[in-house]
Specification:
single chain; alpha/beta; Quinone Oxidoreductase, Chain A, domain 1; Rossmann fold; 2 domains; 7-stranded mixed β-sheet; 6-stranded parallel β-sheet; 10 helices
Length: about 325
């Protein structure tokens, strides 16, 4: 253990939430049975909310944000891990109620960790990050429903963002016809490079949804919620499935029961935070086998810890493309 290490900390007083870049010691680490040297983290939408204070993501203070990380075990009293093991963490309240990945050192419960799969570097693991892991969970839900590549188009909302970009890569490699929905028409070439067969403007999806629309989609991955999700559900074909994994537009769902009882549409809620170890390991193994890592590398921007506040503002403004990897140490 180093005597000190660099980290972001969020504190809160009567004037509100404050973010500082500081040095901590081992005494500042929270409880846990595995201590990790963090090599890479990443920037997800939830991280942007935490860093900017745009929503009450952080619920314990002081706290180091960062909902995921990849690194190497320094010391462990957990029987699953030993020194020098390479590990990945996603979720379990890290970056919300337990200090997370925006620090050179993290201490967490070993029950929250997944062994880094062979064939994936720490940087690539965070190029995937919680956003890409969530995209894989969404694809697994559609597969479990029984959707196959020949069943029709799959629509992906927020397609230029982190979840959407990885979902496009995964679905296109698996042979699905994928339609990308975006509010950034200038990203059309980028979305086609990820495998989008069709690109639609976000605006019509933002309008109030009809109880039932024209049947267009065999399935969907939605990161938006609100009217966007309502429109997607109303346009899903008989027996189709929608994986809802985000709330970038709204937590509301202004729809009716019509798509569910007249078309048999299924809505799957995708929880990346508390998913079981078995599900996590399945998702990470599938990411290694099903994700085109060369194409993944092309959609990654790498930043330093010092760049995080600016990057957080950008992701909240909706101007971040693909995945942002944060080099920690």
């Amino acid at each position: 253990m180093p005597e000190t290490f660099k980290a972001y900390q969020i504190t809160k007083d009567e004037d509100g939430q404050k973010l500082s870049f500081t040095e901590l010691t081992e005494n500042d680490l929270m409880d846990g049975d595995v201590t990790v040297k963090v090599e890479y983290s990443t920037l997800n939408y939830k991280d942007g909310l935490a860093l900017t204070g745009s929503a009450p993501v952080v619920r314990r203070f002081p706290l180091t944000p960062g909902i995921d990380f990849a690194g190497t075990v320094i010391e462990s009293s957990n029987p699953r891990f030993k020194a020098n093991d390479e590990v990945i963490l996603n979720g379990f309240g890290v970056g919300e109620v337990h200090s997370g990945g925006y620090a050179e050192i993290a201490r967490v419960s070993g029950d929250w960790l997944v062994s880094k799969p062979e064939g994936l570097s720490a940087r690539q693991a965070m190029a995937v990050g919680t956003a890409g892991y969530t995209a894989m969970l969404s694809v697994l839900a559609l597969e479990k429903h029984g959707l196959e590549a020949g069943d029709g188009a799959i629509v992906v909302t927020g397609a230029a963002g982190g979840v959407g970009s990885v979902a496009l890569l995964l679905l296109s490699k698996l042979g699905y016809q994928v339609t990308a929905v975006t509010g950034r028409p200038e990203e059309a070439d980028y979305l086609r490079s990820l495998g989008a067969a069709e690109i639609l403007d976000r605006q019509p999806f933002s309008e109030k949804a009809r109880p039932l629309g024209k049947e267009l989609w065999a399935g969907a991955v939605d990161v938006a919620g609100g009217n966007t999700l309502a429109n997607v559900i109303s346009q899903t074909k008989y027996g189709g499935a929608v994986a809802a994994c985000g709330l970038a537009d709204s937590m509301a769902l202004p729809t009716s029961v019509a798509p569910f009882i007249l078309r048999g549409v299924t809505l799957y809620g995708i929880d990346s935070v508390m998913a079981s170890l078995e599900v996590r390991e399945q998702a990470w193994q599938r990411l290694v086998s099903d994700l085109d890592l060369e194409r993944l590398d092309r959609l990654v921007k790498e930043i330093s810890l010092a760049d995080l506040p600016e990057a957080a503002a950008a992701i909240m403004a909706g101007s971040v493309r693909g995945r942002t990897v944060v080099k920690i140490s």
